[in-house]
C-alpha cells in the first residue's frame, strides 16, 4: 500500500492525528482500522483521554504509510516472542 503522503513536507506531519484522518489515509473501513489496531498491525495511539479522544503521532503514521509491511515486522518482534514463550 503506497501513498503519496510520504512525499509531503515535514511540517505537514507535525503534531497529532485523529482516527478519522488516519482511516482516510489508509482508505479502509472504520471496522477494519480498529481490527488492524487490535492486532498490532498499526501504530498505537500516542494520546488517549477518555473513550472518545484518541490521537496518533503524525510521524508514526507517516512511518507506517511509507512501508506498512516493514513497520509491522519491525514493531511486532516483541509480541511474537511473547506468543512463543506462552
Brief sketch in words of this structure:
By secondary structure, this protein is mainly alpha-helical. The protein is built from 5 helices and 3 strands; from the N terminus they run E-H-H-E-E-H-H-H. A 3-stranded antiparallel sheet has the order 1-3-2.
What does this structure look like?
This protein is mostly helical. The protein has one domain (15-85). Helix content is 50%, strand content 10%. It contains 5 helices and 3 strands, in the order βααββααα. Strands 1-3-2 form a 3-stranded antiparallel sheet. Strand 2 (47-48) and strand 3 (54-57) form a beta hairpin. The longest helix is centred in the middle third of the chain and has 9 residues, at 30-38. The model is unreliable at 81-86 (pLDDT under 50).
Bin the helical content.
Answer: 40-55%
Task: State mean pLDDT (0 to 100 scale).
Answer: 81
Discrete helix count = 5
How big a fraction of the residues is strand?
5-15%
- Spatial separation of the terminal alpha carbons: 33 Å
What is the N-to-C succession of helices and strands? EHHEEHHH
Q: Structural class given helices, strands, pairing?
A: mainly alpha
The tally of strands reads 3
* Strand arrangement across the biggest beta sheet: 1-3-2
Please indicate the count of domains: 1
Low-confidence stretches: 81-86
The profile of the biggest β sheet is: 3 strands, antiparallel
Report the C-alpha radius of gyration, rounded: 14 Å
Shape: globular
Amino acid at each position: 500500500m503506497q501513498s503519496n503522503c510520504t512525499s509531503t513536507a515535514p511540517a505537514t506531519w507535525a503534531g497529532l492525528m485523529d482516527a478519522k484522518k488516519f482511516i482516510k489515509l489508509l482508505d479502509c473501513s472504520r471496522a477494519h482500522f480498529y481490527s488492524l489496531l487490535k492486532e498490532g498491525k498499526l501504530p498505537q495511539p500516542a494520546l488517549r483521554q477518555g473513550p472518545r479522544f484518541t490521537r496518533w503521532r503524525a510521524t508514526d503514521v507517516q512511518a507506517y504509510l511509507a512501508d506498512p509491511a516493514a513497520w509491522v515486522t519491525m514493531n511486532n518482534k516483541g509480541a511474537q516472542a511473547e506468543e512463543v514463550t506462552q
